[in-house]
Write a structure and sequence with these properties.
By secondary structure, this protein is α/β, with parallel strands linked by helices. It is 47% helix and 19% strand.
Length: 484
Amino acid sequence: MSNSPLIAALLLALHLSLQAGLIARVLLRPHRDPASRIAWVVVMAALPVVGIVAYLLLGEVNIGRRRIERMRVTLAGMPDPAAAPGMEQAIALARPPERVAHLFSVGRSISGFAAVGGNRARLLPDSDATIEAMVADIDAARETVHLLFYIWLPDDNGCKVVAALKRAAARGVRCRAMADDLGSKQMIRSPHWQAMQVAGVRLARALPIGNPLLRPLKGRIDLRNHRKIVVIDNHITYCGSQNCADPAFRVKPRYAPWVDAMMRFDGPIARQNQFLFAADWMSHTGDDLRELLRRPLEVAETGFAAQVIGTGPTVRYAAMPELFETLMYDARRELVITTPYYVPNESLQAALCASARRGVETVIVFPARNDSWIVGAASRSYYADLLSAGVRIYEYQGGLLHTKSLTLDGEVTLIGSANMDRRSFDLNYENNILLHDPALNAALRQRQDSYLASSLAVTADRVAAWPRRSRLLNNAIAMLGPIL
């Protein structure tokens, strides 16, 4: 008993040393905005035990040293994206107007891909039509089929893609499919996964979790590959928000239908998506795809300019919010955005408000019911400031609006997997395509109008009438945004 005070004092000293050390690490850690530093310091000071455990699990963007090294080695060995025969011609054909050319310069600074011309695309009607188009392209494939999805479910649409891959592999097409180990766990654990492997489809799990108890020792468990990439025969690709699943999305059926938008592209832009897929695939499997990346391109003399922008925790810091903010500040007449998850940093919120304040017709559409109540509450904490700046806010009533889209002045379009939240900014691997084509922009703008037709406008009076407890909850959760 006489040693009890001494032991207690030693434990307290150990705890205080650990707390002080982690607070110092928060303050010294690079690439962390001041709001995040303040939030973590407050949490660890106010909730010493819980705060320390939370920081050890979620405090740093770390996918693990081995993974970082594998990705570094993989990228260092990749061929120059501009060096493939025909790519120089594709780059020369990309002639966006001078007024928007700098937007593609920002994109190139992120992924290293130049804008390429000679592309064609169409916006697919809905989720089921997207799967049918993918299956048709897989059935027509001659050489390679590459797929990467964050969520791949063993439902009707998911199994249609499984069957198409098995058919393609049976006729000698080299099929490679990758799915995020967390988001696609139902498919990976289902008999369909093993059946694809038996049929000759090469499979990989993106960011495998392994033992969940030991995973935090090697890197954050919630850093995920959120990309949705399909590349067929090196010249057809898909990009948008849709996972490989039914709109009913049976893992979260109460929010159904999931409402997505996908585009099917044909042209040099597919080679850039191939680079993203190859980097992910090679860093996980060691299977060398560099020969595919060096093949000559077939470049059409007509077609629009487009550029793939891939982001993630091993890409330069703040790449995705910087792109969003650049587009917002560039708007002159109209800016229309749809996103299911809105938890911005201060600079992105300021950029969106600034767009409306300088007279740009600025519209943003959210789902009325969010599958994450935490994100939904955080998003609503920003409504009052957005409305006071002149941003028009709508909430979609027809299901969970999952489309991530941005249209700018009737000319420029951004579509892909990235949300306007800190997870997409810092934690997830994402893929988007930036393009300049008035016709395709008009098609997406029409789709955005269909969302608006099924939405209710959010007014300043409505927000002011929210109960105090709702505003308190929304603001409290938003305050924790930098650490979520």
